[in-house]
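Input structure tokens:
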């Protein structure tokens, strides 16, 4: 993740693969198109987290070039085999044949899990519109990438290389090199890249509490119709303030509340006395002074008003009920190496995602006691 740019390889010399053919074919193509690969790195299926990646053969210093891709080798609507059709705005009819989208690119299945897991395909950080800062630890995308990856063939004809990957911190020999993933929760990693970090490695992991779940938890505390109507009035007012929405979620990290203002305002409005709410509504949500209770950090949670803590706790409990299994069941799976190894890759990754989320939610339960 964002706090770790490298990882010690497990075993095997760099470049020694059980099935070297796909990697060799890919490297052969790289050579033909003029891709520049530093002699200090190697593409390998050994000692990497995802079963394939780049490993440092020698120590790499910040600023050193790791690889450079010629502009002509980048896949785009201008370089694919049906570029002419796309330019005319038409559709190709190939009689069911799978098109070879990139001219001269070998049809590779580098991943040993390619047939077992539905792995995302894309340009990684570049496809997400990454900036050098977004590119994460270990490597940085130079600013030209974002501009030229989307540009047409005439945008910068004098530029021979539009993608250069350089180290932004020291990378020791034998460590895997990560092109980032940025500060992402496990659910984002598995959605975009096809893997999740095992707990507790992902310091940027998060858990979501759906906003409507907080409304449902608040409705549980109403006893008569008048109270329910007033709660819906409060909710509608929060929607007007753009603090909540039917499809939104409050995002809780391991060390911070990422939607601090939204969650604090929601707890405040749903828990305040009726007369205070009327006054607050008349002021359209504005107050002359902001009290300390309006801030909401992880360390602040035990100091919240009892009504706030109770509503948050009830919301967490409702959220945990949406999972098919409880925390103990998943702890047992993770602690039993044989059972865990018997799970499919997809099941293991899904387990890591759920476990990380539940650990955050259970911590909230402890803080709201």
């Amino acid at each position: 993740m964002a706090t770790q740019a490298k990882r010690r390889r497990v075993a095997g010399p760099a470049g020694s693969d059980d099935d070297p053919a796909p990697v060799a074919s890919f490297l052969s193509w790289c050579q033909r198109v003029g891709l520049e690969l530093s002699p200090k790195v190697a593409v390998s299926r050994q000692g990497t987290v995802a079963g394939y990646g780049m490993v440092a053969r020698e120590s790499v210093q910040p600023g050193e070039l790791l690889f450079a891709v010629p502009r002509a080798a980048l896949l785009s609507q201008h370089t694919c085999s049906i570029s002419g059709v796309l330019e005319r705005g038409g559709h190709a009819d190939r009689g069911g044949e799978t098109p070879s989208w990139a001219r001269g690119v070998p049809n590779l299945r580098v991943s040993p899990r390619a047939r077992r897991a539905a792995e995302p395909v894309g340009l990684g950080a570049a496809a997400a519109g990454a900036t050098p800062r977004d590119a994460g630890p270990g490597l940085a995308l130079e600013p030209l990438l974002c501009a030229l990856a989307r540009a047409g063939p005439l945008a910068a004809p004098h530029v021979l290389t539009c993608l250069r990957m350089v180290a932004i911190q020291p990378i020791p020999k034998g460590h895997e090199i990560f092109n980032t993933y940025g500060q992402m929760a496990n659910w984002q990693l598995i959605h975009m890249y096809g893997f999740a970090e095992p707990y507790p490695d992902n310091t940027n992991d998060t858990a979501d509490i759906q906003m409507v779940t907080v409304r449902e938890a608040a409705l549980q505390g109403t006893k008569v119709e008048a109270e329910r109507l007033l709660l819906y009035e409060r909710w509608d007012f929060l929607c007007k303030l753009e603090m909540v929405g039917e499809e939104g979620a409050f995002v809780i990290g391991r060390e911070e509340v990422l939607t601090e203002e939204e969650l604090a305002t929601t707890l405040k409005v749903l828990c305040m006395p009726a007369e205070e709410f009327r006054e607050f509504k008349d002021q359209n949500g504005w107050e002359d002074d902001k009290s300390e209770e309006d801030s909401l950090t992880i360390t602040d949670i035990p100091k919240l008003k009892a009504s706030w803590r109770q509503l948050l706790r009830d919301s967490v409990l409702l959220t945990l009920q949406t999972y098919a299994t409880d925390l103990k069941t998943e702890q047992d799976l993770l602690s039993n190496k044989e059972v865990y190894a018997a799970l499919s890759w997809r099941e293991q990754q899904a387990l890591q995602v759920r476990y990380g989320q539940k650990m955050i939610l259970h911590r909230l339960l402890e803080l709201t006691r």
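The mean pLDDT is 77. The chain is about 35% helix and 10% strand.
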